[in-house]
Amino acid sequence: MHIHNVVFSHDGTRNQLDGVSASVQTGKITTIIGPNGCGKSTLLSLVSRNNKPVTGTVQLEQKDVIDYKPKEFAKKLAIVYQQNDIPPQITVEQLVSYGRLPHQTFMKRNDTEDNEAVTWALTCTNLLHKRANDVSALSGGERQRVWIAMALAQRSEILCLDEPTTYLDIYYQIELLELVKQLNADYGLTIVMVLHDINQAMQYSDDIILMKDGKMVAQGHPKDVITTDMMQQVYDVRVAFTEDAEIGRYMIPLSI
Ligand SMILES: Nc1ncnc2c1ncn2[C@@H]1O[C@H](COP(=O)(O)OP(=O)(O)OP(=O)(O)O)[C@@H](O)[C@H]1O
Question: One matching Pfam family, short form (predicted)?
Fold first, then answer.
């Protein structure tokens, strides 16, 4: 996927994205990071074509994402938002099965394929035993996994996650990021996510897109992008780096 020089404004007065070019490598985990309000979620909204650039393009397999038919695009890319409204009185399995809608028409549906996809999505997210439970009765971490399961049932090649760890405690944050890593490793799923935690971004990403003020500042391997100079330049924070035998390089914020 290639993002070419996109410009976007939410309100027509100011460009929230100001000429962003970046790429997403197939089969890799790409994480968008940057300070509050720099345009991370807005960029993801263009990638998932919930918004259309004023100028510039987002291309998937050499085709502008805008030119895909909705169901065709849904088979290519699924997105999980930061906040999701739960329909009343819906079970885990029912909600996850909504992910199959792009594969169904009024005249045609393949029940076997749909059931297999839903069971697979529930298994990946460790929710099989909760399939009959009401979604509103689940914990925050479980609920987040249900939305991911719904996106997985869509069987798309790319999974976009907008701040998937927000509202989760540290245990569920790690659980979720391990799930993302496993989905990428086991099924070759391309992941594009927005994270705030720099150390988690370093640990779980193949590629980082670093943004500031609606612009892309750098893209590349975590160790090349997340440096003392970049953290000072982009976040105005003085940091140091150290090594851990298990997780490798990690960052320590020192002062503002
Ligand atoms: N619907 C909207 N209407 C007007 N302005 C918006 C809208 N959504 C976002 N913005 C503005 O666009 C800018 C970028 O917002 P965006 O949510 O993309 O940033 P972000 O980097 O994801 O921020 P955060 O880390 O705080 O979630 C911000 O200045 C925000 O106020």
Answer: ABC_tran
Assigned fold of 2-255: Rossmann fold (3.40.50)
Q: Which of 16, 46, 165, 213 to mutate to test the pocket of ligand 1 (most atoms within 8 A of CB)?
A: 16
User: Which protein residues touch ligand 1 with a CB less than 6 Å away?
Assistant: 10-11, 16, 34, 36-42
Phi-psi region of 243 (alpha: psi -120 to 50; beta: other; left: phi over 0): beta
**Alpha-carbon gap, residue 155 to 68, rounded angstroms:** 17
Predicted structure pTM score: 0.94
In angstroms, rounded to a whole number, what is the distance separating the alpha carbons of residues 210 and 38? 10
Residue with the smallest CA separation from ligand 1 atom 8 is 10
List of the chain residues with pLDDT < 70: 106-108
Per-residue pLDDT at 103: 82
CA 82–ligand 1 middle distance (angstroms): 13
